[in-house]
């Protein structure tokens, strides 16, 4: 465990090191929920990122691809032919159905359902309990609110809430 706060020496029984103490051969996973911060740190750190970490109580089909530094939590279900980018989080009890494609730095929150053939762009956050219908495309750095039901494509940077999902605003773009 690594943290830049020198006052934290222990976390849930694990010793905590400062970033300068990372050995060159250490494998690292960035356990940060904020997608943008996770992206910035991944680009800043000169470390080896671990292969995906998969909880022993997750159900993972054999024919999937999961990028480096990604994490799959307990009770998550990932079905065949799914592609998950680098540094993504598939959280507790989330379901990712067949042929879905998730970009880098995506976060699928607890209990969210990504149905078959859905495409999710880089940096997008799917809120707890949200549902995406089959084949929907979600743009990059979008935010899907908790419990939202997404029945149509969502553009880049959109914030969508409700059932059916409606755009309520746009996140700042990378240039802002």
Automatic annotation (TrEMBL):
Q: Which family does it belong to?
A: Belongs to the transferase hexapeptide repeat family.
Record keywords, A-Z: Acyltransferase, Repeat, Transferase
Q: Which PROSITE patterns match?
A: HEXAPEP_TRANSFERASES
Lineage at the top is: Bacteria, Pseudomonadati, Bacteroidota, Flavobacteriia, Flavobacteriales
Instruction: Supply the name of the protein.
Output: 4-amino-6-deoxy-N-Acetyl-D-hexosaminyl-(Lipid carrier) acetyltrasferase
Q: Does the keyword Acyltransferase apply?
A: yes
| UniProt keyword NAD, yes or no | no
Which InterPro entries does the record associate with it? Answer: AcTrfase_PglD-like, Hexapep, Hexapep_transf_CS, Trans_hexapeptide_repeat, Trimer_LpxA-like_sf
**Which molecular function term from Gene Ontology is one that the record holds?**
acyltransferase activity
What is the superkingdom listed in this entry's lineage?
Bacteria
């Amino acid at each position: 465990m690594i943290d830049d706060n020198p006052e934290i020496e222990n976390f849930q029984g694990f010793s905590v090191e400062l970033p300068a103490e990372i050995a060159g051969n250490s494998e690292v996973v960035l356990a940060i929920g904020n997608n943008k911060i996770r992206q910035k740190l991944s680009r800043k750190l000169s470390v080896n990122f671990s292969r995906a970490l998969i909880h022993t109580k997750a159900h993972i089909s054999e024919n999937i691809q999961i990028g480096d530094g990604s994490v799959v939590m307990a009770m998550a279900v990932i079905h065949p032919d799914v592609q998950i980018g680098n540094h993504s989080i598939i959280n507790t009890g989330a379901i990712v159905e067949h042929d879905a494609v998730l970009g880098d730095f995506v976060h699928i929150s607890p209990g969210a359902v990504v149905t078959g053939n859905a495409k999710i762009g880089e940096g997008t956050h799917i809120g707890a309990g949200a549902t995406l219908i089959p084949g929907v495309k979600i743009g990059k750095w979008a935010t899907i609110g908790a419990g939202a039901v997404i029945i149509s494509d969502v553009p880049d940077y959109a914030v969508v809430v409700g059932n059916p999902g409606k755009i309520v605003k746009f996140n700042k773009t990378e240039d802002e």
